[in-house]
Amino acid sequence: MVISNKPLQFIIAILIACLPIFGFSNTPSESTPAQTETTTVANQAAPIAEEETSEIKEQIKEVIGHHVLDGHEFSLFADSATGAHYGFALPIILWDNGVHVFSSDKFNEGAKHGEAVAESNGNFYKLHHEKIYKTDAAGTLTEEHGHPTNAKPIDLSITKGVLTIMVVALLMFLLFTSLAKSYAKNGGISSGFGRLFEPIVLYVRDEIAIPNIGEKHYKRYMSYLLTIFFFVWFLNIFGLTPLGINVTGNIAITFGLAGITFIITNLTANKNYWGHIFWMPGVPTPMKVILAPIELLGVFIKPFALMIRLYANIFAGHIVLMSLIGLIFIFKSWLGSSLSFMLSFAISIIEILVALLQAYIFTMLSALYFGSAVEEHHHEEAH
Length: 383
Known about the structure:
Helix content is 61%, strand content 11%.
């Protein structure tokens, strides 16, 4: 029999099934008052607990929304009891019938953080969901369908994302300048801290650039491929720190990176590349007319896919990780909180791999596009 082969599982199943029968409760006459009192207390506590849980959920949503958005100040941490925020202000640069420059601290004056009205040369501005709107002295925002309709000045501020990009750019400049100097000084042998990145540079050259672009043309694109690989990788790593940085999870940044790849691809493409788009050799003329618009559309779809792939993966990773961390404060039990912590830790480790993987994919696809742009087709191959 199946049960006789697994006696321990059978016994455990019987015990679990009999637990409701062998209860250690009091007699009905003794337990009725206690049950009534317990039920009354539970009914009174239920709305309070539900309200508290809803409040925690709203706070978690607010924190997640604040984390994935760019910011006009660099907040390191906040004290929930006092409402104080600790960090440093960033410069606000606006174009509104002239240049207006002031500190983001003006939005933090008063009791509520980020809700004060900032004045500059007689104009008044207010920050709402990290967007700056022009208001009156009272800070009135006219909303329609939940969105402010006030005029928005052109925002050229140094935001948290812009500052991070500057830091990464400076870090890369110092790192690879020292690596290049060590090559020149030691006869082609690297030294110093930059030596750690030499195998990655060689990998990008030997495994990404040369196989996809070719020996003849790969050197033209190596500077960009190395820059884009380390730039995306370093930004992804910064995004995993507790500083609340989400640069590559911003679609404007990925749009800019994909746009650069698009421009380089089409400006350096040879006549064979354009010939295979508008008038494919070896294809009947009626089919050429049909395929030409499709091929032309593919020119724009490629960078679009490049943009969405990086943005969606990084943005979704931040949302998932922050949501799992938020579950720790919702469960309020050692079992649920421990499981959430362990899962968050595991996802964090995976995100480290994803940070490198997304930099590799972006660089690989850019090299593929460059290779297709400079590929040389022979007349015999077309036939």
